[in-house]
Amino acid sequence: MAKKKAKGSNKFSNYIDMFSQVISGFIEQRLKVKQRVEDVKNNVLDALFGLKKQIMRGIVEAFLLITGIAALVVGSIMFLSRYIEFDILLIAYGVIISFGILFIAKLKRD
User: Fold this and answer.
1) DSSP states of 5-29 as a string?
2) Looking at the predicted structure, is the pLDDT value of residue 2 above 60?
3) What does the radius of gyration of the chain's CA atoms come to, in whole angstroms?
4) According to the model, what pLDDT value does residue 1 have?
5) Angle subtended at Cα 91 by Cα 75 and Cα 82, rounded to the nearest 5 degrees
6) Coil, strand or helix: which one is 81?
């Protein structure tokens, strides 16, 4: 009878050991998944902040470019208005810009 009791307690300890290994594996898997989720969340936040930074930089660059071009055009018109009448200068400028835009649109369509 003592042998049966030892055999039974050995089986029980094997089951306990196997159960504890399964539980520890499950906990380890959950910790790995949790860590991966945190890593992905941090990567997404970094990407979003980078996108926000690029959008803001693009807006500032576009604003500076537009104001620079406007200043160049207005300055050129004011400079040339000393030598050419203002209304003729504006008509010529409008014609040149219109043909330029039409030419660019024609090239892009092909």
Assistant:
1) HHHHHHHHHHHHHHHHHHHHHHHHH
2) no
3) 38
4) 45
5) 40
6) coil
